[in-house]
Amino acid sequence: MPTIFTRIINRELPGRFVFEDEHTVAFLTIAPIRPGHTLVVPRLEIDHWIDLPDEAQRDLWSVAAKVGRAIQESFQPRRVAAIIAGLEVPHTHVHLIPIESEKQLDFSLADPNASSDQLDEVAERIRTALA
């Protein structure tokens, strides 16, 4: 059965995409820790990031850096953190989170009630910075 991320990538479920190419996509999480919290996901459905083929690894991190720079430009955080946890969805993904301190790297701070309007505005800011 495909993961929820594969279903988003295949447009079976909605996603607020900010970037996509042949190998990798980036879209907003529906429960952001901070505005700008974005997921970078390979199209290849592999559970553990260490099992990704080398080419997929390179593309994943290249896209993460590109999107991370756009988040930095859009939100001006002190840092854009990159986290791979991978415990809830068995599909490799990198969380990019704009932060001011390490205390903000707490998934219990995620906002499951982020409004569609907020998420749309955040996605547009990142897409504009990527253009």
TrEMBL record:
Motif position, Histidine triad motif: 91-95
Query: Organism's domain of life?
Result: Bacteria
Could you state one GO biological process linked to this protein? nucleotide metabolic process
Q: Which residues are in the HIT domain?
A: 4-107
Name the PROSITE patterns for this protein: HIT_2
Task: Give the positions the UniProt entry annotates as the active site.
Answer: 93 (tele-amp-histidine intermediate)
SUPFAM superfamilies linked to this entry: HIT-like
Tell me one GO molecular function of this protein: catalytic activity
Q: Entry's InterPro entries?
A: Histidine_triad_HIT (IPR001310), HIT-like (IPR011146), HIT-like_sf (IPR036265)
Q: Known Pfam families for this protein?
A: HIT
Name of this protein:
Histidine triad (HIT) protein
